[in-house]
Amino acid sequence: MIAVEAERLRLGYEQKVVFDGIDLRIAQGSVTTLIGANGCGKSTLLKAFGRLLAPLDGQVRLDGRPLRAMSTTQIARRLAILPQKPLTPAATSVRDLVMRGRHPHQSLLRPWTPDDAGIVDAALAATGLTEVADRDVNTLSGGQLQRAWVALVLAQQTPTILLDEPTTFLDLSHQLEVLRLVRRINAEQGTTIVMVLHDLSLAARFSDRLVVLHEGQVLADGTPWQVLTPQVLATAFGLEAQVIADPVTGSPLVIPLEPSAGSLASSVVRDESEQLVRLG
Predict the structure, then answer these.
(1) CA distances from 84 to 47, 68, 71, 167 (A)
(2) Does residue 275 carry a pLDDT above 50?
(3) Global pTM?
(4) How far is Cα 194 from Cα 187, in angstroms, rounded to an integer?
(5) Whole-angstrom distance, CA of residue 224 vs CA of residue 226
(6) What is the 3-state secondary structure (H, E, C) of 99-151?
(7) CATH class of domain segment(s) 2-228
(8) Which of these, 203, 205, 208, 97, lies nearest to 154 by C-alpha position?
């Protein structure tokens, strides 16, 4: 079963086209992470998946239904998204922020219930925010604020969650906490997760599948071991690296190397530069 599907998707901003005809399917119950160099379109694609960006052509389907044919409430009950830079409201407590995750499930016939309160409390506890639940969100540290937004997404309780750099502003300990939580939600509830991450080793450790985006296309797609190869790293990131097995988890661990004149990454960059010169 497919949770999210992009078909012949063309995306862009004003005069700049980022993707021109990309196809991608996200399997239900999987953890998929989009990786690639800055500016490759990871966040753009995630916005299209969440209907925050309208396609120039093609379409996105959610659980088999075209996004454009669904109401905002229908989407919000099926899909939650944490954008890269969410707008923090003024004069709002942490608990009130997390409670907003329950709004799509409420109506005139179904007001706030004790079950909603329990779900919010569980989301606060899962993200380690119970003790600061009554504080104003604008008094939180960067890491605490990021966890508050993650708690809101958890409280929304959707079958699919989109996370754009969910570990931003977090130290390594809290990065691991958030990603372990994401993995636990996936394992226990079967939630489909699509993330954008910059740390390649963490992406490999906590993902079933990696999708490498490069120059408006899918450069590589598969398991972490299939994707994180020296050739892919050189092409997508201009990075000379060794990939070894993590001694704890067995997942791929990317070790950057000092570049040399004859390195693979240097060769890739040189070849691309020569192509640009010839085109010019």
Answers:
(1) 10, 23, 23, 10
(2) no
(3) 0.87
(4) 14
(5) 5
(6) HHHHHHHCCCCCCCCHHHHHHHHHHHHHCCCHHHCCCEHHHCCHHHHHHHHHH
(7) alpha beta
(8) 97
